[in-house]
Amino acid sequence: MRRLLAASAAALLLSSCARGPAPLVVASKPFTESEIVGEMIAQLAESDGVKVERRFYLGGGVCFAGLKRGDVDAYVEYTGTGLVDLLGEPPRRDPAEVFARVKKVFKKRWNLTWEPPLGFDNTYALVVRGGYAKKHGLETISDLKKVPGGLVCGFDLEFADRPDGWKGLKAAYGLKACREIRQMTPGLMYGALSAGKVDVISGYATDGRIASYGLKVLDDDEHFFPPYQAAPLLGPNALKKDPKLAAHLQALAGRIGGDEMRALNAEVDAGHRRVRDVARDFLAAQGLLRK
Predict the structure, then answer these.
(1) Which of 16, 138, 183, 251 is spaced 20 to 30 Å from 108 by Cα?
(2) Cβ atoms 278, 46 nearer than 8 A
């Protein structure tokens, strides 16, 4: 019996050795943008010879819970989500202040590390057609006051009533711009705007459909919307599995602006390119990865 147990233990040890080191597990949320930036993290780690396991298109709560348990090592989160949804704190307007707050509390509470933001902010945005903006001289949200006769507004199912949505926005700006509000799903809003069925929608700042439909994001000149800077969030084992990963992510920090992220999203959503190819080409063009 002892020989049998010893043989079983040896076989288990050999099997473990054959499998090699545990892979770096990179996750993403269930939308194109999250998959693209998750793929960038994965490819940067693979450039170090690290084995990577991709777990993409997971719910945001699943990503975060997996990070805390150690089942996930890295994914890209948004600072506003970290502050309001994950910490349960009130929104703050200053991007640097929000990042500093989540970085400090996440480290202390869960031993999770926020790396520097990637450079884009995917918050709510008011979006109009490019030609409509040119006709009425629209550059900022405040400019909506200049449109005669009021607007037909298309908002997602939450935006109309959220304090950080239309309800708060019209109070902050003193707006009475919407003569009619049509609530619709995000999947329908962009097509409805492009077809002229509505005049303005509650979009998302880095959505690829903004570029593909030739739409314009109005500048939030009163800085109403909370910052939602995208930044890599790492679990406690990530840098043990890839000690060079932090340096890679610091080199990537600030390189993806809003226009760049919209274009990358459009390459996948409208251009039907593979996420892996889009991520690799961007990293190569930035000199961060050999093509």
Answers:
(1) 251
(2) no
CATH class of 124-217: alpha beta
Contact status, residue 262 vs residue 210, Cβ threshold 8 Å: yes
Task: Please give the Cα distance from 277 to 211 (Å, whole number).
Answer: 19
Over residues 124-180, the pLDDT tens digits come to: 899 999 999 999 999 999 999 989 888 999 998 778 777 778 888 989 999 888 999
Longest CA–CA span in the chain (Å) reads 89
Give 122-138 pLDDT, tens digit per residue: 988 999 999 999 999 99
pTM of the model: 0.80
Q: Which CATH superfamily is domain 22-121+228-285 in?
A: Periplasmic binding protein-like II (3.40.190.10)
Predicted confidence at residue 14, as pLDDT, reads 47
